[in-house]
Amino acid sequence: MSQNIRPKVAILLKEISTLLSENEREERWLKSFETLFKAAEGGDKDLRYKIKRMYGGMGSFNDLVLMSSEYKPDIEGNEKLDELRHQLYELITSNSEDSF
Questions:
Q1: Which residues contact 32 (CB under 8 A, 6 or more apart)?
Q2: How deeply is 66 buried, as exposed, middle or buried, from its count of CB atoms within 10 A (0-12, 13-18, 19+)?
Q3: What is residue 15's predicted lDDT score, i.e. its pLDDT?
Q4: Which of 11, 48, 68, 88 has its CA 20 to 30 A from that of 80?
Q5: Mean pLDDT, the chain, as a whole number?
Q6: What confidence score (pLDDT) does residue 1 get?
Q7: Over the stretch 27-56, which tens digit does the pLDDT of each residue have?
Q8: Could you count the other beta carbons within 10 Å of the beta carbon of residue 10?
């Protein structure tokens, strides 16, 4: 049975945006996720493709490491980011039959 996963995707995009907003060094990624969140709310038909595209290649979302103000890895922030990153990827790749 097909279900609309867009609301779940939008929630994850918002959570990632919130986490990135707490780190002033990640403005580029923050803008990207805010744009994706707006696309999710607006019904963008290419949303799944746009998200998947962020996961591949050098300098991709997979490579992102949050740093503290002292230029040290933000352990807690990175653990949360990794959890959200995996949840989002699983949702968009394991539900290919579900409506988006």
A1: 54
A2: buried
A3: 98
A4: 48
A5: 91
A6: 27
A7: 999 999 999 999 999 989 999 999 999 999
A8: 17
The domain locations on the chain are 6-94
Answer yes or no: are the C-beta atoms of 19 and 84 closer than 8 Å: yes
For residues 62 and 40, what is the distance between their CA atoms, to the nearest angstrom? 21
3-class SS letters over the chain: CCCECHHHHHHHHHHHHHHHHCCHHHHHHHHHHHHHHHHHHHCCCCHHHHHHHCCCCCCCHHHCCCECCCCCECHHHHHHHHHHHHHHHHHHHHCCCCEC
Structure tokens at 39: 């696309």
Q: Which residue has the tokens 């999710």?
A: 40
Cβ–Cβ under 8 Å, residues 40 and 47: yes
